[in-house]
Specification:
The complex is a heterodimer of chains A (143) and B (413).
Chain A lengths: L2 H13 L4 H14 L21 E8 L2 E8 L2 H14 L4 H6 L4 H4 L2 H4 L2 H28 L1
Antiparallel strand pairs in A: 1-2
Helix pairs in contact in A: 1-3, 2-3, 3-7
Chain B lengths: L1 H6 L4 H6 L7 E2 L2 E2 L1 E2 L10 H14 L9 H21 L7 E4 L2 H16 L5 E5 L8 H10 L2 E5 L9 H7 L4 E7 L11 H10 L4 E4 L11 H4 L3 E5 L10 E5 L1 H6 L10 E4 L4 E3 L13 H17 L1 H20 L4 E4 L8 E6 L4 H10 L2 E2 L1 E3 L4 H7 L4 E5 L6 H18 L1
Parallel strand pairs in B: 3-15, 5-6, 5-7, 7-8, 8-9
Antiparallel strand pairs in B: 1-2, 4-10, 9-10, 11-12, 13-14, 14-17, 16-17
Helix pairs in contact in B: 3-11, 4-11, 12-15, 13-15
C-alpha cells in the first residue's frame, strides 16, 4: 500500500467513532499495542525534542527502506506514534520525505490536540523526515 | 454559629449565572472548569467594567487637563484605593500596579536586589515555590554571587519550620515565600514565617498569587515587607497584578523600568523620579485591568471571602473523599491546612493522558509540573493531574469529574 492509501484507511477507521472520547480510546488501544522498543536505546540521545511527554525514536534501514521503532511515557502519544509508524515505516526515503500526512488534519487531530501536543506531533514527523533525508544523502554518497 | 453559616451559604446556582463562559460546551459536553488555580473565569460585571471603560472613559491618565482624562485618572486611583482596603494596606501609595505577580516579584528581585544583595549574601525560598518565585531570585543570586537557600518540605507538603529557622542568619537578605502552594494547595503559616524572619530583622516577600481569591489577606496583620498577587486568579482580567510594599522599602528602592509617568523632572543632564507608587509604574498603565480588578474585588466582597472559602472547602472534601476511593490514585499534597486544590497521580496512567481524556468529556484540569519542577523532583514524579475549585463549582461537577476520571483510568490502564 502507498502512504496515501494507508492514510485513507486511517481516516476511514476514525470515521467510525462518533465522539472524541471514542477516538482517543482507539488511539490508546493502538498505543498499548506498540511494543518492541529496544531498552538499551531509551536514552537522551534517542529522545525527540519538542514533545511535552518523553518520546524515543530509533530507525533501521533494510533493502533501501526505513523502519521506525518508538516509545513514549504517554499512551496517547504512543498511539499517535503507532499511526505514524503504520504510515511511514518500511517506506523508501523519498516516500517518507514527500508524505503529506493529511490524515492528521482529516481526523481532526491537529485542531484537537493542544498546541504543545500538536507541536510534539510535528516534532515527531520532523524527526522521521530528517532520518529519511539523512539516509537519502548517505545513499547518494555511496552510489 | 452553625446557623449563621447556613444562612450565608453561597447560592452556587445564582453565582454560576454571573459567569457567561460556564454556559459553554466542550466536545459536546457542558464545560466543567477545574483549573481555577491557573486562572479564574470572569463574572459579567468585570466584563462590563472593561467595556464601559472603553465606551465612556478611555483617555490616557495623569496627563490630560481635560475631563475625560481626569475621570479616567480618578477611576484608576479609586481602583488602587480599593486594592489598598482589600488587603488592608496603610496607604494607597504602597500599592503598585504591575502586569501580575510574576512582574511584581521580578521588580523586587531587580530593584530591592540591586541595593540590598551582594556577594555571599543569602535569599531564602522554599521547595514548593512556583517558578515565578524561584527564577528571579536565582538570576539575582547568579548576578550578585549570592546564595539561594531552600526550605525543605515534608511528604505531606508542609514547610519544615525548624529547618527554616536554621537557614535564617546574618547573611540572609530576604525571605520570599508562597502564601499558598499552587500545586499542593498547602496554606503556609506565613505570619509565623514573617515573625521568625523579623526576629533577625530580615524582610519578607509573600507570593500571594494563590491566596487572594481564597483567604482574607491582611498585610498589616502579616507585617510582610512585600506582598504580590495577580488579578486574573481572582476574577479580574489578565495582565494586571499588585505589588504591595511598605512605603519605607519602596521609597528606598530604585526604579525597575524607566520612561513616562514615573519621572519628576527630565533633562539630558539628569532625571529625577516621581514619588511612589508612580516611580514603579513607567509608561501608560493597564487602566482597564486596574478597573477590572477593582470590580473583581467588589464581586468577591459581595459573595464574602469566608463563604467562598467554605464553599471551596466543601468541594475539596467531597472530591478528596471520592478520589481516594479510586484504585491506584495517590494524592500529592495532604497538608492539614489547604485550599481547594487536589493534585494526584495514578498508578499506570500518564497524567497528560488523563487530562486529554477528561477534556474529551468537557472537563478542564491541569496536568504536568504546574511551574513547580523542583517540587516534582522532590516527590520524584514527572507531574500530576490537578483539579482546583472556585466558588462556581458544584457537587454535580465533582461527580462528573470523578466519573470521568474513573472512565479515563479504565481506558488507559
Amino acid at each position: 500500500m502507498t502512504i496515501a492509501e494507508i492514510e485513507n484507511e486511517i481516516v476511514d477507521e476514525f470515521s467510525f467513532f462518533p465522539d472524541w472520547t471514542d477516538k482517543y480510546e482507539y488511539i490508546i488501544e493502538l498505543g498499548k499495542k506498540l511494543n518492541g522498543y529496544p531498552e538499551d536505546k531509551r536514552t537522551d540521545s534517542y529522545k525527540v525534542k519538542g514533545c511535552q511527554s518523553s518520546v524515543w525514536l530509533v530507525t533501521d534501514e533494510d533493502g533501501g527502506n526505513i523502519f521506525f521503532r518508538a516509545d513514549s511515557d504517554s499512551t496517547i502519544v504512543k498511539g499517535l506514534i503507532a499511526l505514524l509508524i503504520r504510515t511511514l515505516s518500511g517506506k523508501s526515503p523519498d516516500e517518507i520525505i514527500n508524505a503529506k500526512l493529511e490524515f492528521i488534519d482529516k481526523i481532526g487531530l491537529k485542531q484537537h490536540l493542544a498546541q504543545t501536543r500538536a507541536n510534539g506531533l510535528a516534532a515527531m514527523i520532523k524527526q522521521m523526515k530528517m532520518y529519511a533525508l539523512g539516509y537519502k544523502l548517505k545513499q547518494k554518497q555511496n552510489s | 454559629m452553625q446557623l449563621t453559616k447556613t444562612l450565608n451559604r453561597i447560592d452556587v446556582k445564582q453565582v454560576r449565572k454571573d459567569f457567561p463562559i460556564l454556559k459553554r460546551e466542550i466536545n459536546g459536553k457542558p464545560l466543567v472548569y477545574l483549573d481555577n488555580a491557573a486562572t479564574s473565569q470572569k463574572p459579567q460585571m468585570v466584563l462590563d467594567t472593561i467595556v464601559n471603560y472603553y465606551k465612556n472613559y478611555n483617555a490616557n491618565i495623569h496627563r490630560g487637563v481635560y475631563t475625560l482624562s481626569a475621570e479616567a485618572s480618578a477611576l484608576y486611583e479609586e481602583a488602587k484605593e480599593k486594592v489598598k482596603t482589600f488587603i488592608n494596606a496603610s496607604e494607597s501609595r504602597e500599592i503598585v500596579f504591575t502586569r501580575g505577580a510574576t512582574e511584581a516579584i521580578n521588580l523586587v528581585a531587580y530593584s530591592f536586589g540591586k541595593i540590598n544583595v551582594g556577594e555571599s549574601d543569602e535569599i531564602i525560598i522554599s521547595e514548593m515555590e512556583h517558578h515565578a518565585n524561584i527564577v528571579p531570585w536565582q538570576e539575582l543570586c547568579i548576578e550578585k554571587k549570592a546564595k539561594l537557600r531552600i526550605i525543605p518540605i515534608t511528604d505531606s507538603g508542609e514547610l519544615l519550620i525548624d529547618e527554616y529557622k536554621k537557614l535564617l542568619n546574618g547573611k540572609t537578605r530576604l525571605v520570599a515565600i508562597g502564601h499558598i502552594s499552587n500545586t499542593l494547595g498547602t496554606i503556609n503559616d506565613v505570619k509565623e514565617i514573617i515573625r521568625l524572619a523579623h526576629e533577625k530583622n530580615i524582610p519578607v516577600l509573600v507570593d500571594g498569587a494563590q491566596a487572594v481569591a481564597h483567604t482574607k489577606v491582611d498585610v498589616k496583620d502579616l507585617d510582610c515587607e512585600f506582598y504580590v498577587f495577580s488579578g486574573h486568579k481572582m476574577f479580574a482580567p489578565m495582565g494586571i497584578g499588585i505589588l504591595y510594599g511598605k512605603a519605607a522599602y519602596l521609597e528606598a528602592m530604585p526604579p525597575y523600568q524607566t520612561g513616562g509617568d514615573m519621572i519628576e523632572r527630565v533633562s539630558f543632564a539628569k532625571t529625577t523620579f516621581n514619588a511612589i507608587p508612580m516611580k514603579f509604574e513607567a509608561g501608560t498603565p493597564n487602566v482597564e485591568g486596574a478597573l477590572g480588578l477593582a470590580t473583581a474585588i467588589d464581586y468577591i466582597n459581595s459573595l464574602g471571602l469566608e463563604q467562598m472559602h467554605e464553599h471551596e472547602n466543601e468541594m475539596l472534601e467531597y472530591a478528596a473523599e471520592q478520589i481516594q476511593k479510586i484504585d491506584g490514585v495517590k494524592l500529592i499534597g495532604t497538608a492539614k491546612n489547604k485550599i481547594g486544590v487536589i493534585s494526584f497521580i495514578v498508578d499506570g496512567a500518564n497524567a497528560m493522558d488523563i487530562g486529554i481524556m477528561l477534556d474529551t468529556m468537557g472537563i478542564a484540569v491541569r496536568t504536568g509540573q504546574h511551574c513547580t519542577e523542583p517540587l516534582m523532583d522532590r516527590f520524584k514524579i514527572p507531574g500530576t493531574v490537578r483539579a482546583s475549585f472556585s466558588v462556581y463549582n458544584t457537587f454535580e461537577e465533582v461527580d462528573v469529574f470523578i466519573d470521568g476520571l474513573k472512565k479515563a483510568i479504565s481506558i488507559l490502564k
